From TrEMBL:
Keyword Hydrolase: yes
Gene3D superfamilies reported in the protein's UniProt record: HAD superfamily/HAD-like
Keyword Hydrolase: yes
Protein name (database record): TIGR01459 family HAD-type hydrolase
CDD domains (alphabetical): HAD_like
UniProt xrefs under NCBIfam families: HAD-SF-IIA, HAD-SF-IIA-hyp4
Pfam families: Hydrolase_6 (PF13344), Hydrolase_like (PF13242)
Length: 284
């Protein structure tokens, strides 16, 4: 399949769909404000019996993500539950009590170890690294951490990446995320554990929560993922065996100008295996 299907609205795609697994950043908000039509679309789908699980590479627990969503104007009624890469990272920390952690990330992400028996230490004394992001994502890139990552590799430290995203939107700009540092560390020969999309554990957790809401095990053929990243959302959905609606207004917006004019070869270069459908922005 190399042709692209452009959908007018979510309503065209959810016949027979029991569960929607929706990305957050780039789909329901841009980091500064919510997208009202997207929120309304998910709410409408829920009102007709569907279950919406938000899956996000946010390096914070679900309750912290919910507080941010409320500040940005995303109503609680938009979704049934949230699964974050931060939650999965916290499980890793909880399962390694007594080991010293070097935490790399901005102060706003300190909820990653809130309430856990986590011992933090300098890089020279740590047993592993948890990376939630750059210290200053407004001005820095992964290259600013090359020296640090070389030292970590010399000590053969495992880096736990709490956000596999390389970049996300913040308003009309793209900012670097933990995934950029993790990929650099992997290129340098370091060991990396990724939590979040496109990796399997976050989808398994989301499906378990959806099954609890629906009261039965969920058939993957009745699941639709929604996202704006080829690398995380589209790849993750495909590898997990579920369909994906791709939103083009997000981080790939410039690449997808004139998308309806693309020939099959260009489609394959952009997507690999194309999504079930595309929309510029999510709406009902």
């Amino acid at each position: 399949m190399t042709t692209l299907h452009f959908a007018e609205g979510l309503r065209e795609l959810v016949g027979g769909v029991d569960v929607v697994l929706s990305d957050i950043w780039g789909v329901v908000h841009n980091g500064l404000e919510s997208f009202p039509e997207a929120c309304e679309a998910l709410y409408t789908y829920r009102s007709r019996g569907g279950t919406v699980i938000l899956i996000t590479n946010a390096p914070r627990p679900a309750d912290s993500v919910q507080r941010q969503l409320r500040k940005l104007g995303v109503p609680d009624e938009t979704y049934d539950a949230i699964v974050s890469s931060g939650d999965l990272t916290r499980l890793y920390v909880a399962e390694h009590p007594g080991r010293k952690m070097f935490w790399l990330g901005p102060e706003r992400d300190n909820s990653i170890y809130r309430g856990l028996d986590a011992k933090t230490a300098p890089l020279e004394e740590a047993d592993y690294i948890v990376c939630t992001g750059l210290y200053d994502d407004e001005t820095e890139t992964a290259e600013d951490y090359r020296g640090m990552m070389l030292k970590a590799r010399e000590r053969k430290l495992t880096l736990v990446c709490a956000n596999p995203d390389i970049v996300v939107e913040r308003g009309d700009r793209l900012i670097y995320c933990a995934g950029a540092i993790a990929e650099l560390y992997r290129e340098l020969g370091g060991e990396v554990i990724f939590y979040g999309k496109p990796h399997r554990p976050i989808y398994e957790r989301a499906m378990a929560l959806a099954g609890e809401r629906q009261g039965h095990q969920i058939d993957r053929k009745k699941v639709l993922a929604i996202g704006d990243s080829v690398r995380t959302d589209l790849t993750g959905a495909r590898e997990f065996g579920i369909d994906c609606l791709f939103v083009t207004r997000g981080i790939h917006a410039e690449e997808f100008e004139g998308l309806d004019q693309l020939d099959p070869t260009s489609v394959m270069e952009l997507f690999g295996h194309p999504p079930k459908a595309l929309m510029r922005e999510l709406k009902w």
